Amino acid sequence: MKALTMTAALLAATALPALADDAATCGTVRYSDPGWTDITATNGVAAVLLESLGYTPDIATLSVPVGYEALKNGQTDLFLGNWMPAQQKFRDDLDAAGTIDVLAQNLEGAKFTLAVNKAGADAGVTDFADLDAQKDAFGGKIYGIEPGAPANQSIQAMIEADEFGLGDWELVESGEQAMLAQVSRSGDSPVVFLAWAPHPMNEAIDITYLSGGDKQFGPDFGGATVHTLARKEWVAACPNAARLFSQLVFDVPMENVLMGKILDDGADAKDAAKEWLAQNPDAIDTWLDGVTTLDGRPGADAVKAAVAG
Question: What crossing angle do the helices spanning 269-279 and 299-308 adopt, rounded to 10°?
Fold first, then answer.
């Protein structure tokens, strides 16, 4: 796959031994899901791969702050959803603790910032600085995701600092699906909300990403990379599984497909992943290079057999 970066390839080739058998204690792999469909999709891919290799995935639904604490305290082994730079403060905390390895940059080309629907763009809002003049049309509300999410915290800080004149606006916190349902219900009424790619919302909704939010979300409309983090102790104890995750690298089109299956078709994340894997055997060869099953058999063959059934 094009998304397999040279950095990830070098890491896989040099940092972790090939065909490394894991102890039976590595059989359960614990990781978390903040309730975002993109991470649910990639977690689903990981679960299918792990199960095909004889491991048991244990996925806990945890908010972003709680998920990072769980990783820091050894309650989970991995996190596939470290969005940077939006989650920089959590990374700073983990880096200071010295207990975490960055196994891979698993996605590039992502973005994450405020956006408006077609009615909002038609009202002339294309930049953060345009919002306050249209406060009444927007109801003075900005729709965010789940409470505690770093993006929500950035919005709340912007409101409290009265940046762009938004000091009297309200942040409405909800989950991803509730937020998107609000956008869908808005019809011809302007609405401003958190938007990101990859996500099928970019196909289903006429979205205009707002410029001007570099301070809050970073340049290039909150341009982001996503990273896989793991506990150092787990990496050392379970080198075979760690090698898999060091090579597990995605791309935006792939995630859009998987997320569409989950959101639009109601598919289970693992079912969507299994279907995609069956149609993309080259990805299996890339991700499973040098990886074995838990009992030491060739990993790629095991995964191909599992998804073909």
Answer: 110
In DSSP terms, 57 is beta-bridged to 29
Integer Cα distance of 131 and 124 in angstroms: 9
Contact 205, 183 (CB under 8 A): yes
Cα 186 to chain centroid distance, Å, stands at: 26
pLDDT tens string 128-145: 999 999 999 999 999 999
pLDDT of residue 5 exceeding 50, the answer is no
User: For residue 3, what pLDDT is reported?
Assistant: 39
Higher pLDDT, 24 or 102: 102
Q: What is the pLDDT of residues 153-181, one digit of tens each?
A: 999 999 999 999 999 999 999 988 899 99
Beta strand pairing call for 78-84 and 224-231: antiparallel
Question: Quick one: tokens of 89?
Answer: 């403060």
> Rounded CA gap, 251 and 253, in Å?
6
Provide the pairing of β-strand 100-116 with 224-231: antiparallel
- Pick 111-222's CATH classification: 3.40.190.100, 3.40.50.720, 3.40.50.150, 3.40.50.300: 3.40.190.100
pLDDT at 170: 98
Please state whether the peptide bond connecting residue 198 to the residue before it is cis, i.e. omega within 30 degrees of 0: yes
Q: Pick 17 or 246 by higher pLDDT.
A: 246
Strands 192-197, 100-116: pairing kind: antiparallel
CA–CA gap between residue 255 and residue 253 (Å, rounded): 5
Q: Which fold does the domain 6-110+223-308 belong to in CATH?
A: D-Maltodextrin-Binding Protein; domain 2 (3.40.190)
Mean pLDDT of the 59-78 span: 96
Where does the chain show beta strands of DSSP type E?
28-33, 56-61, 78-84, 100-116, 141-143, 170-172, 192-197, 208-209, 224-231
Tell me the residue type at 69.
Answer: E
